[in-house]
User: Fold this.
Amino acid sequence: MGHDSKLRGVLAPVVTPFGKNLAPDAGRLVDHCRWLLSQDCGLAVFGTNSEANSMSVDEKIDLLDALVEGGIDTGRMMPGTGACAIPDTVRLTSHAVRRGCAGVMMLPPFYYKGVSDEGLFRAFSEVIERVGDSKLKIYLYHIPPVAQVAITLPLIERLLAAYPDAIVGVKDSSGDWSNTEAMIRTFPGFLVFAGSETGLLQTLQAGGAGCISAGANVNAPAIAALAANWQSPDASAAQEKITGLRTTMGRYPMIPALKATIGRHLEDPAWLALRPPLVELSRTQRDELAADLDKLGFNMPGLRQQASAHAVAT
Amino acid sequence: MGHDSKLRGVLAPVVTPFGKNLAPDAGRLVDHCRWLLSQDCGLAVFGTNSEANSMSVDEKIDLLDALVEGGIDTGRMMPGTGACAIPDTVRLTSHAVRRGCAGVMMLPPFYYKGVSDEGLFRAFSEVIERVGDSKLKIYLYHIPPVAQVAITLPLIERLLAAYPDAIVGVKDSSGDWSNTEAMIRTFPGFLVFAGSETGLLQTLQAGGAGCISAGANVNAPAIAALAANWQSPDASAAQEKITGLRTTMGRYPMIPALKATIGRHLEDPAWLALRPPLVELSRTQRDELAADLDKLGFNMPGLRQQASAHAVAT
Assistant:
């Protein structure tokens, strides 16, 4: 029952490091992906937390190629490919499928607001027909607070009826548990991922597939361990600890906070860079965040070893 | 005082016709631009009403080239070039400047919500620095109901201070007159365009530059006449008639209604096509809209002649 079990569990919307002139830094991205995989965390590259929509399609294609060339397993990869323009979505999706990605996460076109389910159905349909590849596996990306365009239950129903092989799951970043639960109950076999690790245990208990969550960029070990042991007696305590950490990070703008945390643990200030319109944390914010995380005993085991191993190898 | 007087007055965010496989139809677009120019209406191609964000950068570059090759005056052109990703904005903006466009209309990056003025300043700044051309003239595009990311007065002030030659105006599609008025009063010489023809007279009376408005795609003759004669005694009556027509059209989804109206007057059903997520009017809606417009005595003088002249010429 269900699809693509290799993607079940925890995935990180992998943050994207930027180098000189804010160009994507493939080397550091490969390192970070290696660390995530070493923690049994899958790779939802090109998500919201990846600043994916701040990159051109060409930049994303080049990064994806660099990941493959860097030996990253595309079987654990679910790149975000949804853009406002169908030709852009088709180009990146086709490339991801050709490179063997196990799935793609697809935003609806998000420029126009108040659009109809009919229009969104046509958008996804057009993409599926144009990609025209039976290996295409789509995870719909429902994130109304950012995209402002929703993936409704009736839309999912219609897409599943028309494309039962291509439409395999959803990431629900609505923050509304009743919606996540309804997605799980309404569509048996459909892979429903919580949009935050704070809902991981609840999602798995209800029959969901896991979570795709910002916090996994830094807290992958604990979150992946919970996904693996969610039926154990101490799962609730583990969830509570995970939620506590996420709540602490949530006091800061999330993407800069993730990058600051990785940069601190690697002693690598290059990780602080963000593409506008996002801005880095102030020095004060970074110090406060670091102190907050230290108080919780937070660390990122193996992160530096991964980066140095790569630095030696290249 | 002020910049680029050739762009003052009325501009249409030119609707984009699509042909086979929803490819942009350059021939029909050239025809429509010719008609608009013949009515003294400037060309804000690639705006919201142009479905610009439903097209790739490559498609827009090709269309712009086709317009130039079709003899359309780039001195009357203000293409929309703002995208979510800075490299996309830079590519299209650079191309527009190279082709001689009198200005560009620039959305802020619109994927992330709740971003800071500092982040938006950096985004525009990055674009201006990368384009690096003194001929770049930017009209900021403030359309919070769609972009959900605002161009605030403090942001404009900061941009004007840093880039007084590149930042020349704004299109205010907030629908909030107090905001339009504040933009006009706060920044002398700054070219402020109303986002709807319903505010044209008020904008001109307050010292604004004109309007860039959906309705100009079909009602260009009346709107351009008002812009030319706004100080005449019958300007109020003309504004009232224009507002009446726009209100009537506003009962239907705007972009499909514009295309249906052009298609009807040309007896050319190809004009009905829209790219998902937008959908065309139903047959019933089209009939009702046509009847509504007929009741108002609406027509599009010269439209068919323009199209047939071109059909003969090519």
